[in-house]
Amino acid sequence: MTDPLQDPQFFRNPYATYGRLRSEAPVQRVPTGSKGHVSYIVTGYAEARAAFTDPRLSKDTARFFAGRPSRRSLHPAVSQNMLSSDPPQHTRLRGIAGPAFTQGPVARLRPYITEVVDDLLSAWEPGQQVDLVDRLAIPLPVTVICELLGVPADDRSTVARWSRDLFAAGQPERVDTASHELAAYMTELTASKRTEPGHLLHDLVRRADHGELAETEAVSLAVLLLVAGHETTTNFIGNAFLALLQHPDSLTALRERPELIADALDELLRFDSPLGIATFRYSTEELTLGGTCIPAGVPVLIAPGAANRDPAQFDHPGTLDLTRKAGSHLAFGHGVHRCLGAPLARAEAEIALRALLTRFPAARLAVPNEDLEWRQTRLLRGLTSLPVLV
Question: Is the pLDDT of residue 24 over 90?
């Protein structure tokens, strides 16, 4: 049996694969990669929610890969960060980074986000074809997270390229190279912020100076916040607007009543989650999940993209219904590892969608659905481009 998560059709439309796997069993053993490796994939909603909080599923990648032969050479700032740790280390690091992404600080960022969106959309020429991914979905969250961290404007396009290279499925050398280039850049930048207050990097290096963080932890947090701070949001914005373009009644409803956009975000996240497969976990001991026995020491793939389409949780899950109460979706994960930047991602998507529907009410898809190109990664679900006539 081949890896079902590497089929080209999976990248185009994963929901058929997710549905088939879930119909067989909500948790099951699948081959992953081409070298005989196996993992257990969780496609049922109840099982995914339980897995997210099960302490027997660890995110400590360093512990899992210790002593195992590997041809990878990811920089430790990428491979060993807060996202790849368990409590209490994870709790300590999240407590340091988390306050910057709570509702209060994000609310204070909204005027800046609005300004960035206005600047980006002002460059669009009515009547022309625009790539919404390249001209909005990428630069908006990149600009915002770089401003928050203190990344100079001239460096932001390069940083964004390195970040996207980290998700180049099937190109390990490209991924490894990007990890080292990004880590080297952030190491130097973090050190330079020691005497420049006003940015998050300054706060991180100050905490390192006071012994609350190791310098390597400060750099790994900086890299993680940079990458996580825009990659999924880019996909969120692109997927959400595509869903609306493909559902004219929903598009019209939000265009006529833009005050409903904030409440519609949960259904847009559920319908086409920007995170298809959650980041790495493995079993530290034998456990039973969804009636399936998972042995100790194997990777466990929790699939929010599949869970969010589970008919046992959501009626008619393949239908976009903006009146649905979809707040229980798992697009941001669940439990202690729930996405730190969820409030910021929601704010950026809400402001971007509101501006799009207001300034370009007649926008429509410029190519047939079958011509859309999707990123070749099982982790993220997102478009490489979204051609729109405005």
Answer: yes
